[in-house]
Amino acid sequence: MDTQNSGFNIYERHDFDCECGRHHKMPIGEVVIDSGAARKLPYYVKALELGKKGILVTDEVIFGSIGREIYAYWQEQGLEIECYVLKGHIRPDEHTVGNVVCNTPFDADYIVSLGGGTVTDVVRYVATRLKLECVSIPSAMTMDGFFTNMSIIIVDGLQVTYYLNYPSLLLADSDIIAKAPSVMNAAGVGEVISKISAGMDWYAGKLIKDIYYCDRVEAMMGECIAEGAADETIEGIVPGEKKAIENLTDALYKSAVAMAWYDSSPCGSGAEHQLNHFWIKCQDEKGVPQSMHGQEVGVGAVINTMIWEEIMAIDFERFDVEKAVEKTWDRGEWEKEIRAVYGEGAESILELQAENHSFDKAVRRNEIEKIIEHREALAKRFEAMPSSGALIEKLKKAGAPWHPKQLQIDKDELVKSLYFAKETRSGRYNALWLAEALGIMEDVSSKIIKKLEF
Ligand SMILES: [Zn+2]
Ligand SMILES: [Zn+2]
């Protein structure tokens, strides 16, 4: 789809009836991606009628490097705005939320976040709770989460995902984002790369599990990938070229548009995103710092693509269905493994998968037959995808990690993630489920270990 000819501006709030039969919408008020965008806040506050009084929330590092100057500039322009600077290392938890609430004036109309994922998440949460208009100014382009309504807040020590109000305004300023450490924007490239493998998973889900699919959403995701994974974008990340930063930002915005239209994430989140959740769990257990989301899903995309390479290397004409069916685990065996891998978290997974994960051989046989039935369509889609080697090259060029060990994930953790990362969600379908259904996971993991020279 050509976004220019779609009858509306995707950078403003919009909704439409789609050929797929659903009504799609993108609720962000306005998105501006430009050099100097943050300086235009006074103009947009007026134009979008965000109210009289605002408060800027940022952290010490960002305030020291760019915030102080922008804040002074807004005040010179006559904007009535206060400022609250979060101190030290920030966690998106009750304490930080409380600090922001207590430092927001009673008569504030809108709240502005200037910072990375944590500040943005906290401000979006507080804005919704206090019923304020929300403005986001990202300081680095690490992921597509800046353009969504989702925040992860730690409550009682647990990460809780909240679906909140979308921002009224998003100012993505390439002057600011280009100054971020290039590894942060490289993580954004990882997020774009992840959409490539996610798209393959989503397509397989449509064919094999009748998961809802929309061609317009797919085309929008295609634009994200074409722009964000283009050589000129990737090559400009390390030197911090503004044009490259704007392309990356635009690409990540388009991914968010596609997911907002779809109203869920399967179109942009496949096995690589599930692997990322598992690896974060491993990092937490070892006490090593969590990697950035975009870094993890970039590596995840390499692994996911490697799984697809093994699946599509199968000669389906000669595939021994019964041999694969015989490899179906029995429920008891599987439960034992889930308890060993997930410990305290096991019960909720067993409950979640009670209906979703079948151990019935007849169901398994049916799934395999469906895979074989759709082998040509899968092969066609797969051939249009870059190879795992090509993805590695792109990630390397952008300065993003590409190998699990760069995330401090070892060989055993990788293998475990291949078997069990998929269990934390139901109603999804991806290469991890396919490999299990086809009974090839043992072979797939040893081949991946070899390819990675682990
Ligand atoms: Zn549609
Ligand atoms: Zn993501």
UniProtKB/TrEMBL annotation:
Superkingdom assignment: Bacteria
Biological process, per Gene Ontology: phospholipid biosynthetic process
Pfam families: Fe-ADH_2
Gene Ontology MF terms: metal ion binding; oxidoreductase activity, acting on CH-OH group of donors
Cross-referenced InterPro entries: G1PDH, Glycerol_DH
Keywords: Cytoplasm, Lipid biosynthesis, Lipid metabolism, Metal-binding, NAD, NADP, Oxidoreductase, Phospholipid biosynthesis, Phospholipid metabolism
Cited SUPFAM superfamilies: Dehydroquinate synthase-like
Protein name: Sn-glycerol-1-phosphate dehydrogenase
Species, as recorded: Eubacterium maltosivorans
UniProt lineage: Bacteria, Bacillati, Bacillota, Clostridia, Eubacteriales
